[in-house]
Amino acid sequence: MPVNYTATVEVAGEGRNGGTARSTDGLLEHRLSIPKELGGAGDATNPEQLFAAGWAACYLGALLHGDDGEFSLLATLAPRLGGVDQRTAEELAEAAHRICPYSKATRGNIPVTINAAAV
After folding, report:
1. What is the pLDDT of residue 67?
2. What's this model's pTM, rounded to 2 decimal places?
3. How far apart are CA 102 and CA 106, in angstroms?
4. Fewest beta carbons less than 10 Å away: which of 44, 64, 76, 104?
5. What is the pLDDT of residues 21-62, one digit of tens each?
6. How far apart (Å, rounded) are the C-alpha atoms in residues 32 and 25?
7. Which residues contact 51 (CB under 8 A, 6 or more apart)?
């Protein structure tokens, strides 16, 4: 199936703990924070809210328009890790992919490519 659209979002800083998420088109820009319920400051958007918003919007679209079978997802994760060599960057990226809740939720359901780089 051809790729019709690519969304690119960069997350910087401490990721979910005080980082920022920005889309390359500039339409999405959010500070990130761990929810208070999980011991964080809870003073910004968290990844769970972003995931829920995306899923709910997609689901509503499917509910209103039906499934025509033309849409599917794939993901490329491209972490840039400083202070390590390339092999270590790849090993850390694979380890994170094994324990990340989103990676677990999508495992076996969508193709995921990991392109780690030591910088």
Report:
1. 65
2. 0.84
3. 6
4. 64
5. 999 999 999 999 999 999 999 999 999 999 999 999 999 988
6. 19
7. 102
A 10 A CB-CB count for 100 gives: 14
What's the chain's Rg over C-alpha atoms? 16
Query: What does the angle CA 42 – CA 17 – CA 77 come to, to the nearest 5 degrees?
Result: 125
The pLDDT score that the predictor gives to residue 62 is 86
Q: Where are the alpha helices (DSSP H) in 1-119?
A: 47-65, 86-99, 101-106
How much of the chain, in percent, has pLDDT values that exceed 70?
Answer: 97
pLDDT, mean over the chain: 93
Report CA-CA distances (Å) from 104 to 67, 68, 99: 25, 27, 7
Mapping DSSP to helix (H, G, I), strand (E, B) and coil, where does residue 105 land?
helix
Residue 116's identity, in one-letter code, is: A
Q: Residue for token digits 């090993």?
A: 91
Residues 6 or more apart whose CB falls under 8 angstroms from that of 91 comprise: none
